Alpha-amylase (Pseudosporangium ferrugineum), 548 residues
Amino acid sequence: MSDRWYEKAVIYCLDIDVYADSDGDGVGDIRGLIGRLDYLARLGVTCLWLNPIHPSPDRDDGYDVEDFYNVDPRFGTLGDFAELLHQAGNRGIKVIIDLVVNHTSDKHPWFQSARSSPDSPYRDWYVWSETAPADRHQGMVFPGEQDETWTYDRTAKQWYYHRFYKFQPDLNIKNPRVREEIKKICAFWLQLGVAGFRMDAVPFIIEETEPGNPNSPKNLEFLSDLRQHIQWRKGDAVLLAEANVEPAELKHFFGDDGGSSNRIHMLFDFMLNGRLMLALARRNPEPIIEALRETPALPDGGQWATFLRNHDEVDLSRLTAEQRKDVFAEFGPDENMQLYGRGIRRRLAPMLGGDRRRVELAYALQFSLRGTPVLRYGEEIGMGDDLAQDGRNAIRTPMQWSGLPNGGFSTADPKDLVRPVISDPEYGYEQVNVTLQRHDPASLLSWFERMIRTLREAPEVGSGTCTHIDIPAPPGVLVHRADDRTGTMVFLHNLGPDDGVVDLHTLEPEAEFPNDVLADSDYPDPGKLDALPVKGYGYRWIRLRRKV
Ligand code: NOJ
């Protein structure tokens, strides 16, 4: 069995500022999170991914960093952070942090120095152009909120490059001192005890931007270099990257042409995410089958990270216009739910009309597919979104712990909260909260605990192979299997509303005491596998065999 921890991890992603506020100032903090570690351990989470923790003007939810060697004072101190690592470690939970080094905040002292004079030692840490680059209205990541990628700086008297918002000037990866600094930042946090990094915007980090060239070359070698560096500093540290690129390009992010995984360990599977949304919207598993078929083979040690929701909009940009139309129609019909023309700023439960069967189905499906599952905070209790908030903040509202004021997130005056707690009659904190669900064995939270426990007894899902079983099945039903040396699991997920029956008798010779380890209802014993009923929006995880 592989002992790569990240292949068997359950990753939970959270923003400290909206998770738990220990001192009543209205902003979540590290001590608040420490107080919730037992909750996370009980849920079965084995790794936390913290959205940016650094000091920041916070104009992009912390993705605009002002100091890479500290934590935001609103969250606590470096001492608190070390304590978090210790306390999490005591509970078997690793911590990875966002590494946002494509750009800095324009308030970062490096940029302030760089713009102040052509002789600044930091001038060449950023990307400049004497003249207005012809491609300055191309390549925007946030259309509607951003209208150029080059902005004229009056102090510097030059144009600077920013792939994202204009307050996020890009660092110049061509500069060896920048590359060394990135390695130093990683070494610093590894030394403190983090287990790795969620690397933000990797295709842009390695872009050797040339003014006027919208297809600037990419320095993929830097990824090999960084990997070697972090592995040398901490053998089992991981890089988990955001690289939403064309499928043909993906393999270069995992490793060089030598065939081993010597760059990024794990990539978010954006392609699968879009197809999952399409499959759920159409109530038809075909897009997932296609995704499984088209997934490039990964080098040994390379791993996908699967997700349904993250801290950004659901990104549908890799779907065709017609596919996108279907997903919008089903999950984001109002303009106010859509963002950047490509995405949906909603959480999963409201997208699925609050239908508990479909929420379970969607998460059972995600967690059973190949790769390491990543779960966004609040999804485990079926939190909703707040469309009155700007842009992506709709899905960044405070965690709903209880029916107490502010949902138990903070004792501050509601007007001082970092963001309002959801209080509508359907998804508000009085109806949807941890405390209520903890006491209810039939709640979504209790279901998540069971599902994650079951997954952790099935190492073949994270570490093994995942294959679609191509047999005649009712139209809504996806049948797939996971195999490794420890055993085999078979999965039925019915994305459609109609009950169906699946005949899997061809697998009978492989089966030893097949049994349902997780299912939406009580089904008859799988027997000879020749007539396996699965309800509309139902699912069955069947253990076929287990080797000891
Ligand atoms: C990707 C992050 O997920 C997003 O939230 C952020 O705005 C951009 N990168 C810029 O850092």
User: Anything to note?
Assistant: Residues 15 and 51 are 5 Å apart (CA to CA). The pocket of 1-deoxynojirimycin is lined by residues 60, 63, 100, 164, 200-201, 242, 311-312 (CB under 6 Å).
